[in-house]
């Protein structure tokens, strides 16, 4: 049976007069490593806080793990959350942190946690506050995984880490996803990092969902067209997401498949996740929402995007 | 990877049993044992002071009582018990007055404020235990520990002050000492803790929360002595010129021919005219009331008898416990609402 690990309908969160997130409707099916991408202040952390039940919605609803209200006992039981900057009790030892987490949850695989920490060379007796940033992140991740969650939610997990620690961290996440079938939702603005691990993309901008869908589907329905800059405005066959001009050439990110005809004088290239995300991030007005996996189709927003010249 | 779907198991979720409370008890102990240890050290110091000084006071009082004949020169020299020991009484009173405020604020204030200040609430509130149960699991045992420790101090303080009341120090209902004894004292410590916990949640910073808790606590602590306590039970009215021993006089006034004449002579000098007119020579052997009654005035006194000490103690402890329960309930409720 397939289920959505997160499903939101018209979800919104307001702080004072400002909407941090608004009219967010999406459904993330189980079994994905979903990347939540967007510029600072786009509402990523707000969406994650709503999903794990830390925040209460100002509008709409959020359910998790196949229909449980976010923050309900069943939701807390099945979701492990690693918050931004991986907060730990700095004066507690690693062993005490494990003990704490074991006592606060129904399931806790002490053996798994200890084996992982031993592998990483993190001593159990050391105070959590004395660990390096990478070790603190690994400790938080180990504790989250030892809970045997069905959904792992990570808020900017690698933002503070050096490249090696970042790589190790993501490798652990990917292993958990592949070997244990844990669904993962992680926010990040390190696009290059996501390209390796994410197979589902949610792109937020200014508090709204801009792009959502499986990465394979998104890549298959977008092309990069390269051609003479002078003719860039005349391309109208398929919706254009973003136009980038470089000297005499223009690069058009268009919503098209490999079967669509390419105008004479133009070349079509497949796009990568980073390219696609960057294209949308530069055009906060454009949107692509093929609809949640359950087939609820959302209208495509079309319209000529503004041009960005370089 | 899309093939890797985790099956939903709603039937398992339906039978979801919550994580047992005893496991939370360990968490609370582990995270707050240092604070509780500090409280034990501080209160231990206070107890040592009360015990050491109290022993001397008790011995002096016993020596005073058995001294015979009381009018002998030796007894007169050893006497003056109250004048000798009132400074110790004042010091102990100040220390005892500060202790519940400091303990409540320093234990209660950080419980939630530290989590919110350092961001660890994002960890604690997303564990399977549940954030409201977590809050209850922290506040209730800590409140109990603070109350119990203050209760032990209260027993010691009751013993410490007893000779002063035996020596005729004054009414046990007097504001300065009433709330340092009996069941009121631990109830004040409980209230201070509850104020601290709520302040921590609302202010979200440890130091400002402690400062705010102290300010609110002292504001609240002034209230009963100044105004509230005398209304716990309706005062007894009497026209007699002699009050029972150690009664707490609330107010006094005079009537003549069934009509109100003037108010309390003993507290203010505003009626000096009338007193001077009728009783210019009121001697120590003849109270002003007796003198005035010879001129047709009736003296009315509203007072609280000393026998109401324990009813007043239970009333004060009662409303403080109710207030604390309300504050803790509000804290738990607000934790649910508190945005991340």
Model description:
The complex is a heterodimer of chains A (310) and B (340). By secondary structure, chain A is an alpha/beta fold. Helices cover 29% and strands 29% of the residues of chain A. Chain A has nine helices and 15 strands. In chain A, helix 5 packs parallel to helix 6. The longest helix of chain A is centred in the middle third of the chain and has 18 residues, at 163-180. Chain B folds into two domains: 21-231 and 307-337, no CATH class; 248-304, no CATH class. The two termini of chain B are 33 Å apart. The chains are: A alpha/beta (310), B alpha+beta (340).
What is the gist of this entry?
Chain A is 29% helix and 29% strand. Chain A is an alpha/beta fold and 310 residues long. In chain A, the strands form three sheets. Chain A has a six-stranded mixed sheet, with helices on both faces. A five-stranded mixed sheet of chain A has the order 14-11-13-12-15. A four-stranded antiparallel sheet of chain A has the order 2-1-4-5, with helices on one face.
